[in-house]
UniProtKB/TrEMBL annotation:
Residues 46-136 form the ATP-cone domain. The lineage of its organism: Bacteria, Bacillati, Actinomycetota, Actinomycetes, Micrococcales. This is Transcriptional repressor NrdR. HAMAP family: NrdR (MF_00440). A zinc finger (unnamed) spans 3-34.
Length: 157
């Protein structure tokens, strides 16, 4: 690992910590040349296979920008989006796979997005699951309604 300050070709690990959820290791390093310290984060690589066959690294930012479009005009904050992207990444990483289809990423987004905002969920699902008719919307809305009575009963005191 090159030193980011002086480009020295070696560095020494002075501290090493595993993230709480075990998905990453954070190492504090010191450059023996300039003496400055920096941090590296080690995670397993996670790639997304796009429909075109192209493979690119998983990116929370791409999740956020995709979902943000569906959330236009909805009461969803940047923090909500960041949390959703984190949930999606954690769900995917917990599967222990190194590569995932873009379609699977979309399906993984649907669950937490539905919790966040039902209108945004419907918009996203209509694009992602290629709704082609009113019946597709009706079926998705009916599915939302089916789950709703249980939720409201649970939330009663
Ligand atoms: Zn250095």
């Amino acid at each position: 690992m090159h030193c980011p300050f002086c480009r020295h070709s070696d560095s020494r690990v002075v501290d090493s910590r595993t993230a709480e959820d075990g998905s990453a290791i954070r190492r504090r390093r010191q450059c023996p040349n300039c003496g400055r310290r920096f941090t590296t984060i080690e995670t397993t690589s996670l790639n997304v296979m796009k429909r075109s066959g192209a493979v690119e690294p998983f990116s929370r930012d791409k999740i956020i920008s995709g979902v943000r479009k569906a959330c236009q005009g909805r009461p969803v904050s940047d923090d909500d989006l960041a949390l959703l992207a984190q949930q999606v990444e954690e769900t995917i990483r917990s599967n222990g796979v190194a590569e995932i289809d873009a379609h699977e990423v979309g399906l993984t987004i649907l669950g937490p997005l539905r919790e966040l905002d039902e209108v945004a969920y419907l918009r996203f699902a209509s694009v992602y699951q290629a709704f082609s008719s009113l019946e597709d919307f009706e079926a998705a809305i009916a599915a939302l309604r089916v789950d709703r009575p249980d939720q409201s009963e649970e939330s009663l005191p």
